[in-house]
Amino acid sequence: MSDRPNPSVTDNEKRTREPYSERLWVPLWWWPVAFGIAGLLAAEIHMGAPGIRAWLPYVLLFPIPAWVLLWLSRHRVAVAEDAEGTPELRADRAHLPVNFVSRAAVVAPTAKSAALGRQLDPAAYVQHRPWIGPMVLLVLDDPDDPTPYWLISTRRPEKVLAALGLPSAG
Fold first, then answer.
1. How far apart are CA 115 and CA 109, in angstroms?
2. pTM to 2 decimals?
C-alpha cells in the first residue's frame, strides 16, 4: 500500500464536487394556501354526507397540492466541474461550460420585466421562475451555437457568478 491517493478516486471526487448548488423551491407560504384550497374542495364534496363521501375527498385531494408544489420546485441550478476541470453551469438538464461565456451580469428583480419583455431575444435560453426575483445573464461567445445568451433564475446570482469565476458586468 502506498500513501498516494488513488487517482481514479480523486478524479471522481473532482467531477462530483459542486461549488454551488441550489434547488428553486416555491415559497413556503404557498404550502398552507395549497392545502387550504384542497381542504375547501374536499369539504365541498363532503358536505356532511356519511360514509365514503366523508373521508374519500380528503384522501384523494390532499396529495395533489403536494405533488404540484414539488413538481414546481423540481428545477436546480448548479455550478460543477466537467471532466476537464472547467466549471460549467447546470440548469436542469442543460449545461454551459464557462469558456463559452463572454460576459455575465446580475439582473435585478426590478430589471427582470425588461429583460423578459421586449428586449428578450427569442433564441435565448430562459429558465424563469416567477417566484424568484433575481436572474443571471450569461452572454455566449460560441460560433456554433445560435443561442445569444442564457437567462437563469437564481436566489443568489453573485454566488453563481463567483462559482463560475466570472465578474459581474452589471
1. 10
2. 0.76
